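Good morning,

Attaching, inline, the backbone tokens for the sequence recovery test we're adding to the shared suite. The designed sequence is right after.
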């Protein structure tokens, strides 16, 4: 039968009628329209192709090289940087990682998906600093061995390469490659690590650059300094007093009263060196904030650089600065808390909120890392354009939510509510007034009966009777807490670790 001139509707009706006819005759086998058409038109049916089993990726065929990655992340959706053990080791670990996601867990998942690593335990991994839950990073650094576009060569080929002027640093013999000679490619010929990983990672985590590094490079121990920022608004704060107190942190001090103690690590040395510290307005560095004016006033940032930091040290330092800024403590409280002989136990206080804290940068010697942001400098700007686009999208979504919340707050504060008249003659009558006007009176009334403690990130605590820091109950001295823990747990439970940045 000639179907070439049939309309689409007529062809559909014909197919439906054939399906019905064949279905009545052979219900067990004739259910596929393709078979019906092939039978009707006297054409051999098409045999479906068999799916080939997935080919196993053999890492032994590819050389490895050690690289460092610089990356950024918004930390508020994650349970810190450090993964929950070996996140890819077992199904149990994967379930833990899925319930409590971490930055490293996402990074390792992307590395494995891109076939850049075979497993976590054999890639000689190191991180620059471990950030807590909620803390973000602008310049976090990790180092590890990854698959390379280089090639294995013989010793004779290596000698020939050197003879024709090839840079000796491009020929390596790492243990990771079984001691075999490897000719590494030029940066523009290497695998596009940044693009590969960013296509796999969630938008909140972005690889910014990569760098070739030597086999002995360690992201933690090779780091010369870490730079943190803490963002806050000036609402109700004396910025000058906070600056005066902040300058007292400068230099090398014992910060045991400005950190969280983990007796399992049995740390006895709490001296850390603060290289630079200042409090500056945000507007100069972040133009998207405009002039930094909002319902909360000008935005500021604590800028802090040091060689290393204790667990929660920055957040504890910021908490004391907030107390000073609110007039609850004098700037001299910093001196008193740094004098660990007279204040030999940490006073009880709540540390500042985690969300405004950012690990802004990690500094290395120029001979150790040379960050590569573009695969083909001067010609290919795809990586930078992609980064800008992704981070702009994140900013746009977050800013939209902030604008909506601001609009709702504006509506609330412009709402009129009944209030008592201030004139004696009409003291019993109620008048309508904007809630913003009433709010100021309510806040004044609250502050007359209780203290308002700012913790940053929009978090505020109210206490009825403020207890001065120097008079608060203190924890036992560090050496006693370490001794009690050691006697109870023993050396077998001790966390074997060296000083590591923990904020």
């Amino acid at each position: 039968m000639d179907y070439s001139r049939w309309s689409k509707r007529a062809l559909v009706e014909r197919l439906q009628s054939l399906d019905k006819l064949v279905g009545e005759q052979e219900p067990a086998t004739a259910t596929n329209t393709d078979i019906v058409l092939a039978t009707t038109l006297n054409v051999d049916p098409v045999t479906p192709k068999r799916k080939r089993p997935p080919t196993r990726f053999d890492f032994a065929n590819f050389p490895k090289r050690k690289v460092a990655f610089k990356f950024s992340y918004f930390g508020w959706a994650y349970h810190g940087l450090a993964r929950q053990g070996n996140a890819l080791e077992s199904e149990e670990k994967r379930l833990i990682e899925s319930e409590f996601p971490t930055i490293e867990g996402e990074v390792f998942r992307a590395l494995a998906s891109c076939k850049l690593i075979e497993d976590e335990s054999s890639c000689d991994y190191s991180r620059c600093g471990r950030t807590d839950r909620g803390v973000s990073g602008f310049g976090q650094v990790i180092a590890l061995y990854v698959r390379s576009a280089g090639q294995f060569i013989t010793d004779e080929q290596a000698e020939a390469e050197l003879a024709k002027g090839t840079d000796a640093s491009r020929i390596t013999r790492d243990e990771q490659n079984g001691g075999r000679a490897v000719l590494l490619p030029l940066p523009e010929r290497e695998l596009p690590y940044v693009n590969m990983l960013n296509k796999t990672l969630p938008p909140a985590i972005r690889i910014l650059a990569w760098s070739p590094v030597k086999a002995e490079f360690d992201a933690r121990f090779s780091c010369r300094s870490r730079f943190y920022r803490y963002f806050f608004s000036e609402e109700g704060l004396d910025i000058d007093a906070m600056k005066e107190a902040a300058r007292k942190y400068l230099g090398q001090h014992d910060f045991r009263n400005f950190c969280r103690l983990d007796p399992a690590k049995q740390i006895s040395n709490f001296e850390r060196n603060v290289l630079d510290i200042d409090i500056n307005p945000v507007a100069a560095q972040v133009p998207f904030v405009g002039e930094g004016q909002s319902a909360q006033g000008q935005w500021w940032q604590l800028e802090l650089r040091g060689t290393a930091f204790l667990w929660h040290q920055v957040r504890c330092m910021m908490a004391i600065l907030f107390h000073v800024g609110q007039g609850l403590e004098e700037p001299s409280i910093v001196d008193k808390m740094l004098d660990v002989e007279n204040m030999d136990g940490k006073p009880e206080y709540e540390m500042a909120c985690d969300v405004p804290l950012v690990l802004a940068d990690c500094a290395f010697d120029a001979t150790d890392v040379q960050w590569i942001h573009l695969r083909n400098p001067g010609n290919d700007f795809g990586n930078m354009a992609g980064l800008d686009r992704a981070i702009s999208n994140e900013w746009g979504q977050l800013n939209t939510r902030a604008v909506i919340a601001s609009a709702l707050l504006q509506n609330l504060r412009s709402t009129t509510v009944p209030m008592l008249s201030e004139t004696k003659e009409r003291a019993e009558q109620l008048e309508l007034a904007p809630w913003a006007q009433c709010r100021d009176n309510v806040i004044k009334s609250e502050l007359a009966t209780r203290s308002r403690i700012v913790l940053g990130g929009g978090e505020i605590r109210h206490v009825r009777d403020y207890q001065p820091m120097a008079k608060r109950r203190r924890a036992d001295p560090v050496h006693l807490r370490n001794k009690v823990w050691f006697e109870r747990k023993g050396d077998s439970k001790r966390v074997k670790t060296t000083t590591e940045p923990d904020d």
